[in-house]
Design goal:
Helices cover 68% and strands 14% of the residues. By secondary structure, it is α+β, with helices and mostly antiparallel strands. It folds into two domains: 39 residues; 119 residues, no CATH class. It has a three-stranded antiparallel beta sheet with strand order 1-3-2. α1 packs across α2, α3 runs antiparallel to α7 and α7 packs across α8. It starts with a helix and ends with a helix.
């Protein structure tokens, strides 16, 4: 079931991004997608404890996460632009490395969290050791924004909603 789902998703992406529907390109797409499915089936959907409905809930929640992350990226872009283009911003630049201990449990949630940080201008996830992330930031504003934990909370809402609800109830 999972390899078939992976193959269909990969082939759909191939068709959409290639824009070619002739026999040669479709054949090349099928062969490529079969090969990648065979190579990656252990990586994708490694956690097989979740049922199909839970996977679809995650996909829907992730699709809601993307616009939120896009807004955060735009805000960070504007901040980095101000840092680069104004005298006051230039004085605000104070690079530093921040250590964050995450409460996320699954590797995939940590992967999304790390990449969300790196996609945000002015921050780069440098190292992950277990639950500890080392992140380079350009300014105090970006550090404060990161330590506020909004990205981690949003990722938890997508991939670990039950754990997120328990943590929120404890506060």
């Amino acid at each position: 079931m999972y390899p078939l789902a992976i193959f269909i998703l990969l082939l759909a992406n191939w068709v959409v991004f290639s824009g070619k529907l002739d026999l040669f390109h479709l054949g090349l797409g099928v062969v490529s997608c079969l090969f990648v499915t065979w190579l990656s089936q252990d990586f994708l959907f490694h956690d097989r404890k979740k049922n199909w409905e839970e996977r679809m809930r995650e996909a829907g929640a992730f699709l809601q996460y993307i616009p939120w992350l896009t807004v955060e990226i735009v805000k960070a872009n504007l901040h980095v632009f101000r840092l680069a283009m104004t005298r006051q911003g230039g004085q605000e630049i104070k690079p530093r490395i921040v250590t964050i201990k995450t409460k996320l449990k699954t590797d995939f949630a940590k992967f999304v969290f790390a990449n969300s940080i790196t996609l945000t201008p002015g921050t780069i996830t440098m190292l992950i050791r277990g639950d500890v992330f080392h992140v380079h930031t350009m300014s105090q504003f970006l550090e404060d924004d990161l330590l506020e934990g909004a990205i981690e909370r949003k990722v938890a809402e997508v991939f670990e909603p039950d754990a997120f609800k328990r943590r929120r109830a404890k506060r």
